[in-house]
Amino acid sequence: MNEEIKRSYQFKLVWESGSLIDALAIIHKAENTHSLTKDEIVLLLKNNESVQELFSAADRVRSQFVGDQVHLRGLIEFSNICKMNCHYCGLRKDNGNVKRYWLTPEMIIDFATKASSYGYQTVVLQSGESDIYGVEDMQYIIRNIKSLGLALTLSVGEKTRSEYLAYKEAGADRYLLRIETTDRKLYEKLHPGMSFENRIRCLTDLKELGYEIGTGCLVGLPEQTVESLADDILFFKELDADMIGLGPFIPNEDTPLAHELGGTFELSLKVMALIRLLLPDANIPATTAMETLNKEGRMIALKSGANVVMPNVTEGEYRQLYSLYPGKICINDTPAHCRGCITGKITGIGRQVSKEYGYRIKK
Ligand code: SAH
Ligand code: SF4
Question: Residue 19's pLDDT is what?
Fold first, then answer.
């Protein structure tokens, strides 16, 4: 490369990523005010020179607001049957390559009982979206799990307000429903037969009914821009979400997005760190999808703003069959193994496993 081209190329790089000084000033502002404009978020998402400082600032805010305790949530993947067709997901209805399963209420309660015996304070019941479990089945499961003295999170998709009310009355405490992307056009393209309005309606209902609400996004969806990721972050703040879980989109070969590139670990981590800076007291999991792309992914995330881990407590072949994306970690491990493994990793980075329920404490 001749000198002139080289210089203009370097200039372009600096220009495109924003100056390091600007980036550091924005990180400083975020750490102290927990508020940023969309342009500032975009600059940080694009800037590659300030990432270490971004992660360190998120780690400091995490330590100051939610402390060094890591909350574990035991995840029960109780059915992979789904009537939806989300373009990215291996459980989508049109994927004929998955053996479908559903656990009986007694099995679900049994897995929760075991989770409690391993010391979990929270269980998360997650499944594809289906009507296999009627409202009364769900209430039966919820009441029995609550009688074990556990906090209970549901992640079973879009339901009516009266269903959400019935689950709440039976004792459910929290609900996870990712917005996936706040880019309405992209949302509707990736979710045939679903509407952005209904997604928002669900989150609003859940909040009004008194749930702790968890949402989040996928990072690296086709056609997703950093501007739209900035909108996602501002959406979580506007909604005042109690939990925000995000991870890279990982292409699944049995889906229409099989040949897309997918998200990166680095960009997911940046989005997560920014969320910590803007929602300092929220619960933020170090997600399994992050560890799928980086074998130390969850510990790196815990050192860059996260304070929650959701180990799998599903037993047997069901772990394999809950195939949202390829390369999912721990599919051959037992719940007992995962509990020991994650505790070792957490203490190994100088943090402790919390013995509390880990509700959000607003500050
Ligand atoms: N059916 C429920 C819960 C199960 S899906 C729901 O949709 O809310 C749980 C999460 O898995 C989704 O919110 C989505 O963000 C994530 N997911 C699905 N497919 C994925 C993929 N290919 N890569 C990464 N995450 C994926
Ligand atoms: Fe079903 Fe959830 Fe997968 Fe969509 S993301 S296809 S609703 S399991």
Answer: 84
Per-residue burial over 33-48, b if 16 or more Cβ lie within 10 Å, else e, is ebebeeebbbbbbebe
Question: pLDDT tens digits for 193-209?
Answer: 999 999 999 999 999 99
What ligand is nearest to the CA atom of residue 262?
A: 1
CA of 338 to the centre of ligand 2 (A): 25
Q: Is 158 in the pocket of ligand 1 (CB under 6 A)?
A: no
Q: List the one residue out of 123, 206, 213, 197 whose CA is nearest residue 164.
A: 206
For the domain spanning 68-353, the CATH number is: 3.20.20.70
pTM of the model: 0.94
| Residue 286, amino acid | A
Do 20 and 52 meet the contact criterion of CB atoms below 8 Å apart?
no
Going from N- to C-terminal start, the domains of the chain cover: 3-62, 68-353
**Is the C-alpha dihedral spanning 163, 164, 169, 174 positive or negative?**
positive
Are the C-beta atoms of 187 and 199 separated by less than 8 Å?
yes
In angstroms, the CA 163 to CA 177 distance is: 15
Whether the CB of 129 sits within 6 Å of ligand 1: yes
pLDDT in tens, 313-340: 999 999 999 999 999 999 999 999 999 9
Centre a 10 Å sphere on the Cβ of residue 88 and count the other Cβ atoms it contains: 24
